[in-house]
């Protein structure tokens, strides 16, 4: 069962997405902000990170750069989740080190397809 770290500050989004992923046999860990995310990564190595871009304090761009700069966490795939679907947003996420990008509200079949591709050995 793959372990997913969901980094999301919005409680409703976090609860809804985590329940939907758990029903599909994912082990879901939660981080509510950047500090929480980095603290969790000290003790857990998730198989994939779902990263909200608009977080209080350190945003998802900064966190992803930090994760990818650390040799211990650089190999963990990161999927950006953002309500921003403007021109250039996907490119900004990928430039920050995200491995893929998906918009909110989440289209679960599309997100699962991206996740499964990144989780393949």
Helix content: 40-55%
Give the rounded overall mean pLDDT. 95
CATH superfamily name? Response regulator
Instruction: Give the overall shape.
Output: globular
CATH architecture heading: 3-Layer(aba) Sandwich
Domain module tally = 1
Instruction: Let me know the number of strands.
Output: 5
Q: In CATH terms, what is the fold-level topology?
A: Rossmann fold
Helices, by number, come to 5
Give the spatial strand order of the biggest sheet.
2-1-3-4-5
Radius of gyration: 13 Å
Tell me, what is the CATH class? Alpha Beta
The main sheet comes to: 5 strands, parallel
Query: Structural class of the secondary structure composition?
Result: alpha/beta
Order of H and E elements: EHEHEHEHEH
Molecular structure report:
The protein contains five helices and five strands; from the N terminus they run βαβαβαβαβα. The longest helix is centred in the N-terminal third of the chain and has 12 residues, at 11-22. Helix content is 40%, strand content 20%. It is an alpha/beta fold. It has one domain: Response regulator (Rossmann fold), CATH 3.40.50. The chain has a five-stranded parallel beta sheet with strand order 2-1-3-4-5, sandwiched between helices. It starts with a strand and ends with a helix. The protein is globular.
Which properties best describe this structure?
5 strands, single chain, five-stranded parallel beta sheet, Rossmann fold, globular, alpha/beta
In short:
This protein has helices at residues 11-22, 34-41, 60-69, 89-95, 108-119, and strands at residues 3-7, 27-31, 48-52, 78-82, 100-103. The protein is an alpha/beta fold and 121 residues long.
């Amino acid at each position: 069962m793959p372990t997913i770290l969901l980094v999301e500050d919005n409680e409703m989004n976090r609860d809804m997405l985590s329940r939907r992923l758990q029903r599909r046999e994912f082990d879901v860990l939660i981080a509510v902000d950047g500090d929480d995310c980095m603290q969790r990564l000290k003790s857990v190595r998730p198989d994939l990170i779902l990263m909200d871009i608009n977080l209080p304090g350190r945003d998802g761009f900064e966190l992803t750069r930090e994760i990818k700069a650390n040799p211990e966490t650089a190999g963990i795939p990161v999927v950006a989740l953002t309500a921003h679907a403007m021109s250039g947003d996907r490119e900004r996420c990928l430039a920050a080190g995200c491995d893929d990008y998906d918009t909110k509200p989440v289209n679960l079949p599309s997100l699962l397809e991206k996740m499964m591709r990144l989780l393949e050995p």
